[in-house]
Amino acid sequence: MFHFSNIVRSKGDPKIVEGGPSLKQPPDQLARALGWLGIGLGITEFLAPRRVTEALGMEGRETLVRAFGLREILAGVMSLSVDRNAGLWARVGGDGLDAAALLSGLTSDNPKKGNIALALLMVGGIAMLDYRAAQDTKPRRPPPNARRKLYPNRSGFPKGVQAAKGRAKEMIQHKTAGVTS
Amino acid sequence: MKALVWHGKEDIRCDTVTDPEIQDPRDAIIKVTSCAICGSDLHLFHNFIPGMMPGDIMGHETMGEVVEVGCGVDSKLKKGDRIVVPFTIICGECDQCKRGNFSVCETTNRKKHLADKVFGHSTAGLFGYTHLTGGYPGGQAEYLRVPFADATHIKVPAGIPDEQLLFLSDIFPTGWQAAVQCDIVPTDTVAIWGCGPVGQMAIRSAILLGANQVIAIDCLPERLSMAEAAGATTINFENESVLERLKELTDGKGPEKCIDCVGMESHVSASWPDTLLDRAKQMVMLESDRPHVLREMIYVCRPGGIISVPGVYSGFSDKLPMGAFMNKGLTMRTGQTHVNRWTDDLLRRIEQGEIDPSFVITHTVPLEQGPEMYQMFRDKRDSCVKVVLKP
Ligand SMILES: NC(=O)c1ccc[n+]([C@@H]2O[C@H](COP(=O)([O-])OP(=O)(O)OC[C@H]3O[C@@H](n4cnc5c(N)ncnc54)[C@H](O)[C@@H]3O)[C@@H](O)[C@H]2O)c1
Ligand SMILES: [Zn+2]
Ligand SMILES: [Zn+2]
């Protein structure tokens, strides 16, 4: 498993013998999968919008599909970054937009109604996963109003702040005296 | 041995790895007694600096006891010596080392060709800090091979605890150099952005160098309280406008000296639209850094003033107000720290009780808990300011 990273090590540098546990959690992996899924889907929408609108019987909406594709890609990239939580919430919002657009195409005269229904089902499923992942990857920073330890006694100057300032003054006087004399 | 190993973005693990070996006559091997996690390590944790590879050992703030020396180390170092390891690997012989510009040593980067291409020139080899600076295994481990050990060390006496000496490896000289670069005179106001460990050291250094007023800027109450403890005036950017407060505190003129102890990962906030744009561009790799602090410093610094930048930037920064920078006649000084240029003086100050850098430590834990501590330090949980690891 560590074969590759071990081969490229300079000779004599430590190599992994036994791996320790990773702190990556299943929700992190889910976020990653969703991010890549979004990027894949987004690229398809962006490059082949016509295929999408045809399949859904929504010809003429190619520009919207392209824009949605771009949105999918950006939210996907964000879900892969350290700000994955924001990316996942962006995806949840995007799922809502997708559903709204699909619903608008669900008219009785659309011969591809069936496909739209299927797509809606898919969007619903993904939305649930997006929501789950967003809930489970909440940043663990303490909220602004959290109780915190304060450090009012940690000056770092064993003789006190005043002594440190005094000493600085002395040093400066010493230096300037050295220059003039 | 056990070591903290980088496996990818936000994935650092405590692995078992082979022990380091002497590879060159100038090498030494130390048994690590204490090491620390640095704000710079967070940039790697987030994979914001290119050039890490899975399997790289982290860490560049390390001290310990020499257990083995190569035949070329001469009498400079012997088994049993207690040393702090500077994060910059230096040869002590090249033109730059002779001038004291240790962090741009011309010899020690063993992957020079990479750095030559990316930065135009290669800089010194660094411990545990990407393959651009040599890909040297770092010191968050039980043992560390110190290359060019005859020059790359700070000998420290027995009788002073590790905690007081460890930061000679990086953050203390870094804060010190940041303040020295400001050419402080007794009438100066020095404004310091970021009250992390580097900011805290810069605050103490500015005071020891005789600044009239030191202003510290951050949003974390625990860090601001630590800044206040040393006599700094504080600005919490979440509750007040940095620009307005700085003007108020300097009779409308702005601070003469500004220090950026934040670097490429500035806080992102809806009240600073530039940071949102930077973050978006960073994600799609149109920009590598978020230079909000640089912009703010250039804007607020008094004309003719000095901007000192110990904060790390990795690549390309957009929308820097060069017009203001040029017309105001500002000077910018920056760089990785020339650690050994300052450490004799700083060690003496510690010995004489002028300063005790251990004030910054809030967490001391076994090395095995390192991965959790990376998360805690990053998330600023439990009022964490500085983590020391004990192998
Ligand atoms: N030049 C060198 O040789 C050298 C050496 C060590 C560290 N560094 C760099 O110094 C920087 C700070 O290191 P650290 O260990 O203190 O890290 P840290 O992450 O603990 O501290 C950064 C602090 O900046 C604050 N901050 C973020 N955005 C801000 C903003 N816009 N205005 C004011 N404050 C803001 C954060 O709240 C945090 O407290 C990092 O970039 C690190 O890489 C450089
Ligand atoms: Zn550091
Ligand atoms: Zn050199």
TrEMBL record, chain A:
Chain segments carrying region Disordered: 1-21, 135-181
Organism superkingdom: Bacteria
The name this protein goes by in its record: Cyclase dehydrase
TrEMBL record, chain B:
Alphabetical list of Gene3D superfamilies matching this protein: Medium-chain alcohol dehydrogenases, catalytic domain (3.90.180.10), NAD(P)-binding Rossmann-like Domain (3.40.50.720)
InterPro entries: ADH-like_C, ADH-like_N, ADH_Zn_CS, GroES-like_sf, NAD(P)-bd_dom_sf
UniProt domain Alcohol dehydrogenase-like C-terminal: residue ranges: 197-269
Identification of the protein by name: Threonine dehydrogenase-like Zn-dependent dehydrogenase
Pfam family, one: ADH_zinc_N
Species annotation: Bradyrhizobium sacchari
Domain of life assignment: Bacteria
Protein family (similarity comment): Belongs to the zinc-containing alcohol dehydrogenase family.
Cofactor: Zn(2+)
Alcohol dehydrogenase-like N-terminal domain location: 25-153
GO molecular-function terms, A-Z: oxidoreductase activity; zinc ion binding
Alphabetical keyword list: Metal-binding, Oxidoreductase, Zinc
